[in-house]
Amino acid sequence: MAQHSPAAASPSPQKVEALIASYGAGRHDQAERQAQELIRRHPRHPVSWKVLGHVQAQTGRLEQALATLERAADLAPLDKEIANMQGNVLCGLGRKPAACDSYRRALTIDPRDVNALNNLGATLQELGHSVEAQAFYRQALELMPGNAEIHYNLANALLESGAQEEAEAQYLQALRLQQNHLGALSNLGVLLKDAGRFADAEECFRYALKLKPDSPDLLANLGRTLRDAGLQEPAAKCFEAGLAIDPHHAHNLIGKGYLEFDIGHFAAAEAYFKSALTAKPMTSEALAALADLRRMDPTDADWLVAATQALAQVQPVRDEVRLRFALGKYYDDVGDFDRAFEHYARANALKRQRGRRYSRQQWEEEVDRLIEDFPIDRLRQQHAGASDSCRPVLVVGMPRSGTSLIEQIIASHPCAFGAGELTYWGTTLQSVARQPLALDESSVSTLAAGYLQVLGERSAGAERVVDKMPANYSRLGPIHIVFPNARIIHVRRDPLDTCLSIYFQNFNATHPYANDLSDLAFHYRHYHRLMKHWRHTLPAETFLEIDYEGMLDEQELWTRRIIEFLNLEWNDSCLRFQDTQRKVATASNWQVRQAIYTSSRARWRHYEMLLAPLLELQELGH
Prior knowledge:
The protein is mostly helical. The chain is built from 31 helices and five strands. The model is unreliable at 2-8 (pLDDT under 50).
């Protein structure tokens, strides 16, 4: 700790050294007595005030520490350590704007003070100014590039502002510098999970758990990752292990609730979510999960009060987004459409600010490339290495178009199995699909074997296995080349209802178009153009289109057509799909467990005056 020349007579150097030695050794009681004695004898000696302020702060007496450090700053206005410590104390008192002023004062004294740069960045980030925070972290890293903690902090700020790729690079750099950095491992795992890279996320969390096996937080994150990957039983073991360590751990309780939710046990799910709120009141994720359990009504007034109170608290952006989507759903359910849209619009605005930016040019070019790379003559010819299997059934379409309903109907047949949204094609085709000529015999047979293995892991005996990843609509060319006998079902829904439902859904980072109505309209137009191409190029015997509204009007007609298309014998259970007990880990979980209902048809008309960017889509029909 630096020493200063006081304005009045100073204590002996030996006494000052003894004071600093006591503080440095953590002997706080002794250091406090020594500091107070020196202040009594030499009231204008800044080091004594400074050490006393440090001791008071580290023993939790923050208001006393602040007053003491103010006195020290008066005596030594050019001491950057005092300014930094004042900032830390103000942060502890929740006075973050004032803390920023203190850190800025430290930087005025020494613009190269790495601690002040890092502290200022962290405080700005907590205040929601993640972009500004990044500038200070970068300055700190120019001065100290080998500091893993600052790389970690910069990664958090980048992630908060939506720069996922650079955030990932910074987490990896932090881990290169400090291999066992638990924060970097955990947050990198969350980033990878949200991006759908479940295997990579799982690797992060399992490594972190080797370092800290008794962490309920890490177990909860690993459980969430496994659930999102469709591995419910291993996920359950993680949540149960976390609850064995801490029976009141909110996120493991929420995880157990989601597993019950997935299999349609809504009462059990509700009990877990409420237990999470008891353990940790106003937890945004639990409140949002309760809103998704069913259609809400005015009797849910207690939930509304709790969610509104939680929103009024200072929330991280992710939590505010969750709460606003949940409040939007509540008000939509009870028919207060103006208030519902206010919450949805704010939630989407926040996601745009911090999410991955949507590139219209990139999407248009991707559709152009797919149309060019997969012409009709290429899709109608035989390809070496292709599989003749009829097991795969691909249910595709825009999100929120009815794909979960169609999967539930098929999965109700005793010879079929619904595998949910498999990430296989999105992961494996990232390189191959960008180089279509690379679909040679070796790559085609490798893709086929890998996919059949995935389907076999989900169901060893079913004649048909449904992969209802909606986004596979952009991969139908290579999928058909690899599996020419696979059945493809494209679900179409009214464009405005589809886009509105997307806008009202809290999707992950893989749907950057979802948070802006103009982007949604643009994305839908080019999806429509691509599906027109597949309709023309794919063989009719492998490609079936279903209008969601048609299913609502003529359920048995369309259900029979689907079962016939799959070359399965008719079974009446397909008409009673709502009774089928199975896992459904999508946003449509509650809906697919209800009988056919029509209340979601033309839902957009409740919001017509607010949907100008989408209205042009009416001309497209389905």
